[in-house]
Design brief:
The chain has about 325 residues and is an alpha/beta fold. The chain is about 40% helix and about 20% strand.
C-alpha cells in the first residue's frame, strides 16, 4: 500500500497543470479531508502550478464519484431540511441575503445598464442558479436559471424564476439566445473548463457579456491559512483559480476582460468564517446532524453570524489591496 501511495504521488508530481498545461507542478498538500460537509472519508491531494498559480485536485476524482461529494440541499443554499426551502425565505434571513447580494447585483447591474444604453434587449442566463435569489435580486424580467438540482429549481420557481434542469452541454438552449450569461462559484466545480466556456460563448449573442465569480487562491486568506482555507472546499472544487489564471483562461478561450472586482460581502467573509469554524456553516451543520430548527439552531446561526461579522473587516481590507477571497470578472467575446 505504501508503494502504491508513493507511486501515485510521483505520478501526480509529473502531471501537467489542468489549466495551463505547464509541467511546473508539485503536490502542495496531501491527504486533505472534506472539512466542510464530511460527505466522504476519502483523502485528497492538492497540486499547485508554479507557472500560473492554480491549485487543483491531483489526481482528479472520476466523474462517477463527483455527485456523492454534494450533500442533499447543497444547491439550495442555507435552507436545507424537512420543509420546502422556498417557504423559509422570509423575515430577517431574506433581508440579510438581499443585503449581501448587493455586490453581485451592482456589478451585474452595470453590465445590464450598458446593454440597455446600447439598445440591446436584455436576456440573462444564470448557470448554477441555486434557489434563484440572485436573479430575483437582479430584477430582470427575461431570465433563466440553470441547475441540476430539482429542489433548487423548485425554490427558484417559488421566487418567480424560470428554471431549467440541464447542463451547458445538453443543447437545451438555442445558440446566441442570451445577452448575458452569469455563473457564480460554478467554474471551480468543473473540469475541463474550456468546453464550459465554449458553451457559454455559444449561448451569448456576438455582442453579449459574461460575468464569472470564483474563489481567489491569491487572496490573503488563502496565503495565511493554506490547507485550511475554506475556499479550497475539497473535494468539490476541482480547480481553484487565482485572479490572474482566470483572466488568462478567459483570454485563451476567446474573451476580452472588461472589469475585475475583488470585493464581495456575501462570499469573502463567509469563506474566512468557513475556514475557521466549518462546523458552524449552517448547511454543513445540518448535514452533519446538527439542529435545523429550534433554540439550538438559532444559537448556532447567531454564532456563525458573529464569526462572519468578525471576519468582515479583514475581508474588506484584503479586497482593497486586490487580494479578495473571491474575484468577479466581466468579459466579452472577442470578435
Amino acid at each position: 500500500m505504501e508503494a502504491k501511495a508513493a507511486l501515485a504521488t510521483v505520478l501526480a508530481l509529473m502531471a501537467a497543470c489542468p489549466l495551463c498545461q505547464s509541467t511546473e507542478t508539485r503536490i502542495r498538500w496531501t491527504r486533505l479531508p472534506d472539512r466542510l460537509f464530511r460527505t466522504t472519508e476519502e483523502r485528497f491531494d492538492v497540486g499547485s502550478c508554479d507557472a500560473c498559480g492554480t491549485r487543483f485536485l491531483s489526481p482528479m476524482p472520476p466523474n462517477e464519484r463527483l455527485a456523492a461529494y454534494y450533500p442533499d440541499g447543497y444547491w439550495v443554499g442555507t435552507e436545507v431540511g424537512g420543509e420546502d426551502a422556498a417557504s423559509k425565505q422570509r423575515g430577517l434571513l431574506e433581508v440579510y441575503r438581499r443585503f449581501v447580494l448587493r455586490d453581485h447585483v451592482r456589478f451585474v447591474g452595470r453590465v445590464v445598464q450598458g446593454q440597455r444604453a446600447g439598445g440591446k434587449q436584455v436576456r440573462v442566463l444564470d448557470v448554477g442558479c441555486g434557489d434563484g435569489s440572485f436573479l430575483q435580486a437582479l430584477g430582470e424580467s427575461d431570465c433563466v436559471g440553470m441547475d441540476l438540482s430539482l429542489p433548487a429549481l423548485r425554490a427558484a420557481g417559488a421566487r418567480g424564476i424560470r428554471g431549467l434542469q440541464a447542463t451547458l452541454g445538453d443543447g437545451a438552449l438555442l445558440p446566441q439566445s442570451f445577452s448575458l450569461v452569469t455563473a457564480f462559484h460554478f467554474l471551480e466545480h468543473v473540469y475541463p473548463p474550456e468546453p464550459v466556456l465554449a458553451s457559454m460563448r455559444n449561448l451569448l449573442r456576438p455582442d453579449g457579456d459574461l460575468v464569472l465569480q470564483v474563489p481567489n487562491v491569491r487572496s490573503w486568506q488563502a496565503w495565511l491559512l493554506g490547507r485550511y482555507w475554506g475556499g479550497l472546499d475539497v473535494p468539490r472544487h476541482l480547480i481553484d483559480y487565482s485572479d490572474r489564471s482566470l483572466i488568462q483562461l478567459l483570454e485563451r478561450c476567446g474573451f476580452q476582460v472588461v472589469a475585475v472586482a475583488h470585493h464581495c460581502l456575501r462570499d469573502n467573509p463567509t469563506t474566512l468564517a468557513n475556514s475557521l469554524v466549518p462546523g458552524l456553516y449552517p448547511p454543513a451543520r445540518i448535514v452533519r446532524g446538527g439542529a435545523d430548527h429550534g433554540l439550538a439552531a438559532m444559537l448556532a446561526n447567531l454564532g456563525y453570524l458573529a464569526v462572519t461579522l468578525a471576519c468582515t473587516p479583514f475581508a474588506l481590507l484584503e479586497s482593497l489591496f486586490g487580494r479578495g477571497a473571491s474575484v468577479m470578472v466581466h468579459a466579452r467575446p472577442r470578435s
